[in-house]
Amino acid sequence: MSSERGSGTVLQTQEHWNIGGAAPGFQFVTAAKTALDELGVKGISFTVFDHHFGMKWAGGRPHAFQPGQTKETFAAMVQEYNRRGIGFNLVFSNLLIEKKHLGDKRCNWMLEQCYRPGNGVIVTSHVLADYIRTHYPEYRLIHSLTHFNKEPQYYYQHSDLYDVFVLPPHLNYRPQVINELIENLGPERVEILVNETCFRECNIRKDHYELISKACLEDDWDLWEQLTNNFCQRAHAERFCNLGQTSDVKRIKNFTLSKDEVNGLKELGVCNFKLANRQVPNQQYMKWMEYYIIDRLGLSTTFYVYENYYKPASILAGHMPN
């Protein structure tokens, strides 16, 4: 693969990345897209996902309040991503939504403001998914992994409702299941999370997601504070302290995939990948993007030169990149 600027590099297969933490990651994602576009790289695309604080339908990871951000500024950020050719997926993955919750004014306001071609909604509740499909049919519906169903029949049962299914990370290591899902649903409808940092043997993951959903839905900020202040560390402290030997600690594994494992998934036909970059420090945010995207494309040196020499030189010469 050539890495010269303007070389028209084309990937053998289309590769799409859905990247979390849209608000803190704006400069990283937009810079990467601009660079790859100007370097002539074809076959890779981006969307981002996030949610604004205080949304009852929210779920997934605990989300801290961002000073200065309002629902209006969040909607404006979504519009700016769209203006730059990057689709936005709202995270409304609350597990506990019932029909009585569908009239929430704040969440419906956000759906209305972000309703544009190319945008989507990440959903766990089938009740909410059906509501969005009926009232906002142009949204791309992405089924969150937080239901943790591992059997293919579950996905076939709901294939008419969702456009894309994000697979629980346990399935990343079951190539036969991934093959079956790709063959029956199509590769464009399967998405793989590559950097899940939860421990493989964690026994509180499902309960954790349900507590987050409960805190959002009930505006329970006391519970929210518990979830955002070292919840996992407290839950696992006694267990890990009793391991005894350093060698025992070294045997603990998470679900984070290596570049070789990602390449293996691509060989199976996977083309949609997810980076769970919400609530990570800026330095780690960019490291994951470099590791999974820039480095794997063979463009690490070129990207470095572009960001640090070519682009600044163009600005100094009066040629501001778009």
Question: Termini, distance in Å?
Answer: 25 Å
Percent helix, as a range, is 40-55%
Overall, the morphology is globular
H/E series, N to C?
A: EHEHEHEHEHEHEHHHHHEHH
Q: What is the helix tally?
A: 13
Q: Beta-sheet strand percentage?
A: 5-15%
Low-pLDDT windows of residues: 1-7
Please compute the radius of gyration using only Cα atoms: 20 Å
Total number of beta strands: 8
How can the largest sheet be summarized?
8 strands, parallel, barrel
For the residues shown, what is the average pLDDT? 87
* Broad structural category: alpha/beta
Spatial arrangement of strands, main beta sheet: 1-2-3-4-5-6-7-8
Oligomeric state as shown: single chain
Question: In a few lines, what is going on in this structure?
Answer:
The chain is an alpha/beta fold.
What report would you give on this structure?
Helix 7 (205-217) runs antiparallel to helix 8. The longest helix is centred in the last third of the chain and has 17 residues, at 300-316. With 322 residues, the chain is α/β, with parallel strands linked by helices. It has 13 helices and 8 strands. It has helices at residues 26-38, 71-83, 105-113, 126-135, 152-157, 175-185, 205-217, 221-228, 231-241, 246-250, 259-268, 282-294, 300-316; strands at 10-20, 42-50, 87-92, 120-123, 140-143, 164-167, 190-193, 272-275. Strands 1-2-3-4-5-6-7-8 form an 8-stranded parallel beta barrel, surrounded by 4 helices.
